[in-house]
Design goal:
Length: 667
Amino acid sequence: MNSSTLKKGIFIPSIIFISIISLVSVFFPSIAENVLSAVKTFIFVNLNWVYVWAVTIFVIFLIYLIFSDFGKIRLGANDSKPEYGFFSWMAMLFAAGMGIGLMYFGVAEPMQHFSSEVFASKTEINRAKNAQLYTFFHWGIHAWAIYAIVGLSLSYFAYRYKLPLSLRSCFYPLLKDRINGKWGNAIDVFALCSTFFGITTTLGFGVVQVNSGLETLGIVGGTGFVYQVFIVLVLVSLSILSAVTGVDKGIKILSNINIIAVVCLLLFVLVLGPTVYLIGSFTEGLGNYVNNFFALTFDTHVYEEETLPWFYDWTILYWAWWISWSPYVGLFIAKISRGRTIREFVAAVLILPTLFNFIWMTVFGNSAIWLDVNVADGVLSGLATNPDALMFRFLDYLPLSQISSFVTILIIIIFFVTSADSGIFVMNNIATQSATKSPKWQIILWGALLAILSLLLLNAGGLDALQSMTLITALPFSIIMLLFIVSLIKGLRIDRSYYRREFSASAIPWSGEIWKQRLKQIVTFRDKATVDRFIATNVKAAFVELQAEFASNGITAKINTYQQPERLEIEVEHDVVNNFLYGVKTYSKVLSEYILMDENLPDIENERTYFPRAYFGDSREGYDIQYFTKNELISDVLKHYERFLEVVSEDRNSMFISRDANLQDGE
């Protein structure tokens, strides 16, 4: 497949905007940084409340979903199953979501809070507690709530109702078919540019840390641009190779390897560091976080003017950074989360990565603070503003520092590759509107663009300007995310009403006319051939008679026949709304040992029994129809058709019954 799958309405405006901002940052880095930094500062100082309220609403809404009835809704058809095992799922979302950041800030952030002049008036113990509390706050539930909102919105509208896996789909309840026009393109262009800038700046800083680590180990002779070129070329090449192999292979395998390596490094520091102190401080720190959760959430530091600059440079910057990254991380999380329930998705995404982040930040950050006070005599505090080298200097105070530094570099490299390859995948996904297959040259194109821009910015010193641009984009996107919540609420309410709609009163109950036959059917366990024959005769006879009656009323119905397994459908086609479909399929189930051994039942020859089960065109859960007579089966089809006509007649259900689903099914 050599032809491009790129959508011109998304790709061309994105490339033009990316090129303009990048060229300005490369050729006029100082001017660009001054202008963009001034805009960023204005937003952080005057509009910081937007970030505070937005993130607060994200957290409250997600917690509500966990405990609400909506939590039972599955991200996909009602009978869908997760595509990835739990460990692989967590490893991939963790690698994409935090990755390099944990390695970069694991020691640096707690140490910077601990040594900050803003908290200099506090005692040493209180400064240590403070450092842990704010680190937990910045890397905890609030950060993952931002990612979860985007990931959940994308998963819900893409998998539940077959819309493209694209940010524009999250606006369907609000914009309806207009998402396929200029509004939809504008949303995707914004997401693509934000993703590109965020990945570029993060990878640029990651290259600097890898270079610093290699210099520490004596593998390279310095931290000059020549070494950075070599590092970028090697790592981006690996990222492209991984992206080409796909999520199921490259990204999944690397993520699994890296999470194991990360746990090994974590245990190494925990065992050889101040173990008892770390376990105690984690326990107390977790309690401190829980006790201060809501105070931290709503705190704007308006009554403490001396801490406002710190608040802007840390909390608000973090909220803006996570929001700017959320299109990329959210889309990737959505890609790997098909088949999970909303409750499972939200609880896992909020709690498990947060808990791991807390353990990581405690083990590395509190170890560094303890060593700085008791062993290093302030040396690590002095390096707090140099995070590139701080992690490796910290490891020097532990045994086997050469080995642990090498493992750290290896982890950073794999995080680099998993972030880049998942980023390449996401950008291509946005630019192609979730095309099933894209030519390999497109994957290489995105990787090459990342490599070239990262190197140009590293050489010109323009990374800070691009980072400021990324943070500025977070303000409008925070508003977009709030609209995602409005769309989700609207969609979920209709979803619940749609799937809970009762059958009409025309449903015919069993009568007592053939009770002897019914009793015999109830205690008889059928083989596959018997059920297949039931479908081929009884069900077909009912469908043929019904088809003729539909025709006499001016309605064209067709009968679809399939085999292996035996399946029969009656379908009424529509031009505007979804087709009406009622099908019967052979299903099987394994009988329990209690039934097999029960002497009060007829002899059962096989542990597996078969039965005919109805299914419908809108993924509602079907049921066993083996006891239905021909007339009862006809009646059952009619009651579903009556329900279908009632549903499609209501305007509010239009998002579930548009003809787009027919077109997708027929492709």
